[in-house]
């Protein structure tokens, strides 16, 4: 199975468990709507690519970690689209969960996906109990408070925002979690991968800012543009301009690719990082960066 | 340390971690507001009482399970009070999290508490990795979909409601989780405790319905009355009347106490169940049931 198949199989299994017979039918539909069809599945692919580079000694645990990370990413999108945040009607080219099912069901679907993520990790690592706790600790840190996704989103409600902590928590943290979890699931050392995680998380934030500022039409992020400006959020394009932001993005991708430690799958992973970066860039600009 | 001290110490430690330096300050305040001062901490006390009755072989893991259960209960209260559900301004005699901090921060505080619950379980069972997965599986089942709290709340948004599944998911599931987790943390067999969990969960639901219908003034549930009627939710008092509901409650408490399996702390636990039941009842009615 290639990486994408492993991820979709993991997601299908997790959703089958969460929406099993007895689940309120509307909630079950909302849970599936939040997860399928997916976006680029960047974070779980990164997780599995790092596990592969580390020798993939326990592919079942690596897939569980990748699945949990994507479930948590989907949960954060469902809650980000709620009226009290972005009030987004569209996500990944179709109605957002709150637009399709209403606020109450969207709130619960997000909660249910968070729980399903940790449940998946516990269930799928039964054969490797020494991995369960460390994987949950890594992934919970990436999404909770004080440094994860929840904290990142919360910075937007603070009277004073620390932009570095904000970006680190809102975007880089889950990339770092994906990389660390992939390494740990395969029996590797997460420390060796921290530069990669950091650089890639920052690169993704810059790409996100570029999309938001440029409105590329065919939007790889799957969400409406100009949200940062509308919501008064910091955006690197406003500070450095488009050319400056692109230069920064290229530099971050170089740093990420160069930081891949020597290991069996290192070259494949470096190639994946460079391809991913080009895929992430607004199409108008990608040619100049290839 | 008695049960209450163990719970409060566990909650303090979990909140110290979640609100550590670097946490957005407003989010940190909201997280603390959601958790302190607590309500009756019924579910974690039940968890620890069952662990004690089973010999309390691993008190650190039992406290971790109790703490996680209470964090999840607090998260559910924060989200239940949101405008898209009860739109409650008061909780435990003070402003609800959404009333004090706004919807956005309340949504994130609930999410953060869910994550903190699983993070606590992973962190505090490092010495006993064979317990981490089973405890997370039990507790996730009690709060997620298809059968936990999230599903229970979701039944309220369904066009047709299955009242038995609704009550089981919304109330009984977390009692069952508390009992099972307490037994497993102490090396006991959860199967022996399922009747107790079921009866106590149902008793709590009846008590909740009685409070809602009667508006006892000094409300042990810490929330406004007549919400069921206002929100068109099923309530056993509407079906059986006050006397019928009280008789049912007494019968459920008897079933719960009688079902305690033979073990070292059985008598103490039976006493706790009967005391808890009287404490739960609306004061107007408790005298007649003592």
Short description:
The structure is a homodimer of 290-residue chains. With 290 residues, chain A is mostly helical. Chain A is built from 14 helices and 2 strands.
C-alpha termini separation of chain A: 29 Å
How many distinct domains of chain A?
1
Superfamily (CATH H level) name of chain A? Farnesyl Diphosphate Synthase
| Major beta sheet, strand line-up of chain A | 1-2
CATH classification, class level of chain A: Mainly Alpha
Strand content of chain A is under 5%
Number of strands of chain A: 2
Mean pLDDT of chain A equals 90
- CATH architecture of chain A, by name, is Orthogonal Bundle
Oligomer: homodimer
The assigned structural class of chain A equals: mainly alpha
- Using the coordinates shown, work out and report the CATH topology of chain A: Farnesyl Diphosphate Synthase
Cα-based radius of gyration of chain A, to the nearest Å = 18 Å
Largest protein interface? A-B, 61 and 61 residues
The 3D shape of chain A can be described as globular
Assign a percent range to the helix content of chain A: over 70%
H/E element order of chain A: HHHHEEHHHHHHHHHH
The biggest beta sheet of chain A reads:
2 strands, antiparallel
Would you identify the regions of chain A where 5 or more consecutive residues have pLDDT less than 50?
A: none
Number of helices of chain A: 14
């Amino acid at each position: 199975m290639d990486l994408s198949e492993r991820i979709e199989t993991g997601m299908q299994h997790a959703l089958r468990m969460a929406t099993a017979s007895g689940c309120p039918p509307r909630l079950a539909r909302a849970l599936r709507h939040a997860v399928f069809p997916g976006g680029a599945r960047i974070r779980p692919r990164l997780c599995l690519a790092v596990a592969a580079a580390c020798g993939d000694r326990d592919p079942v645990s690596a897939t569980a970690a990748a699945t949990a990370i994507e479930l948590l990413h989907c949960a954060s999108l469902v809650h980000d689209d709620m009226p009290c945040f972005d009030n987004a009607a569209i996500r990944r080219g179709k109605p957002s969960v709150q637009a399709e099912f209403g606020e109450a069901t969207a709130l619960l679907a997000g909660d249910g996906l968070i729980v399903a993520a940790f449940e998946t990790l516990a269930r799928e690592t039964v054969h490797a109990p020494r991995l369960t706790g460390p994987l949950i600790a890594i992934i919970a840190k990436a999404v909770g408070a004080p440094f994860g996704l929840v904290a990142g989103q919360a910075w937007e409600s603070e009277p004073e925002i620390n932009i570095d902590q904000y970006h680190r928590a809102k975007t880089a943290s889950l990339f770092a979690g994906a990389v660390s979890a992939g390494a740990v699931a395969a029996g590797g050392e997460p420390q060796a991968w921290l530069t990669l995680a950091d650089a890639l998380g920052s690169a993704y934030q810059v790409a996100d800012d570029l999309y938001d500022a440029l409105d590329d039409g065919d939007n790889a992020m799957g969400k409406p543009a100009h949200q940062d400006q509308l919501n008064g959020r910091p955006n690197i394009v406003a500070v450095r301009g488009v050319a400056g932001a692109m230069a920064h993005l290229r530099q971050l991708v170089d740093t990420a690719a160069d930081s891949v430690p020597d290991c069996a799958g290192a070259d494949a992973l470096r190639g994946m990082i460079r391809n991913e970066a080009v895929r992430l860039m607004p199409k108008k600009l990608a040619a100049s960066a290839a």
